[in-house]
Amino acid sequence: MEFRTNVALAAGLLVVWAGPSVWAQAASSPTQPPTQAIDHAPVERIFGDWDGLQTDLVSRGINLQLNAVSEFAGNVSGGVRQGATFANQVGLDLDINWERLAGITGFSTHLILVNRSGSSDSSLFGDNLLPVQEVYGSGGDAGVHFVSFYGEETLLNGKFDFAAGRMNVENDFASSSLYCSYMNNDLCGDPKALPGGDIGHSAFPDAVWAARIRIKPTDATYIKVGVYAVNQGLYTDKYYRSGFDFNTSQDSGVYLPLELGWTPKLGPNALPGHYKIGVGYDTSSGYKDFANALAAAGVPGYANRFRTGSTQAWALGDQMIWRHGKGDTNGVILLAGLVANNPRNTAYADQYFAGVIDGGFWKERPGDTISLLYTYVKVSGHLGDVEAVEDTLGLPLSNSATGVQTHEEVLEANYKIHVSRGLSLQPDFQYVFQPNAQSNIKDAAVFGMRASAEF
């Protein structure tokens, strides 16, 4: 980890001082989708202000973030076996404010690169639906993985915003920085049923050719629409291990999302809230019926069937109900949401979640946060029916299952400890009911630890 971090730091500094051709991205945690703001609140760093270098860069319009996350998880009981794994990520995030650097009004560019390594404890104990470590996956181990690079134009005091380039849907739709308060991938970034349920709903750390528009009729409301290529090889080692393959050979259509949002600040204490509803449509043809597996096995009464198009919808909200301090996360925040997918096209039919985050509850330790989350994921009944027939006939089960899949639930509790400037540790506990949505796999108790650093 130390070696990779030092290499990333050196590479980042070389890129920055290479001149005005430097790329950039919106600063963010490596586990969260980037924001659209070009000048961010000061980030607490282990190395401080880099002896004034960071302040100088920002004054020129260059914002550089170097960060690392390591997530340990081990199941002490349940699953198909016990064991423990680490999953790691080192991120280099850059963004350039071209208005400040070159006088181009409202224009900025954004870039993210990551290094990923490790393995998944969920796969170890038999769960392929809801990974307990959110930084695992998407192309496997990669020395450098290209995440995104896009340009953004903001006009009319932020009321109109257009972005285009290599982006993912999660960057702008159905996402929240609050979601990565949790370590399980059931929510971090956006609800797992969205990118897991439809390949068109692309997610961090992968991107496609895309464009989106955001309009703010008022300061507290917005409308967002976009068009994103659908890349069938997006999450595979073969086609997208490094993320630098920009060709369209695996494209099958486009994903069209629409989201309406309301972001009020309620009461005399200006308690922030975020409410959004959205829908996405994937135009891809060739969606296979789950029963095609039975047709391929020669089971009488079944024939191959294919469909065009898939729809998913979401309703998400969070609201601070009690304030501890001035920040937007310094208080008690309630969050909840639901996702509905076409159950004939995806294993993730529905997802429901509810949680609470309490940031700054301890006056003497304002940087500490405690978080709780409950998630329920329902597997498609159509898939379950096919698996039941396969099980009866002694055939291998679809979706790499070893039993008929119905639903899975996860309880998570964690405590984020602000250790020192730019460094935090987060002990984590997860209890997984019916891993892989299978009743034949014992419930798993998972203890974990996330370490996060900003350099």
List descriptors.
mainly beta, disordered N terminus, 455 residues, two-stranded antiparallel sheet
Describe this entry's structure for a reader:
The structure is a single chain. The strands form 2 sheets. This protein has a 16-stranded antiparallel barrel with strand order 1-2-3-4-5-6-7-8-10-13-14-15-16-17-18-19. The protein is built from 8 helices and 19 strands. It has a single domain, classed as Carbohydrate-selective porin OprB (Porin, Beta Barrel), CATH 2.40.160.180. The relative contact order is 0.14. By secondary structure, it is mostly beta strands. The radius of gyration is 22 Å and the shape is globular. 13% of the residues lie in helices and 44% in strands. A hairpin with a 4-residue loop joins strand 4 (142-155) and strand 5.
Q: Mean pLDDT, as a whole number? A: 88
Counting helices, strands and paired strands, the structural category is mainly beta
Distance between the termini: 13 Å
CA radius of gyration: 22 Å
Strand order, largest beta sheet? 1-2-3-4-5-6-7-8-10-13-14-15-16-17-18-19
Number of domains: 1
Beta-strand percentage range: 35-45%
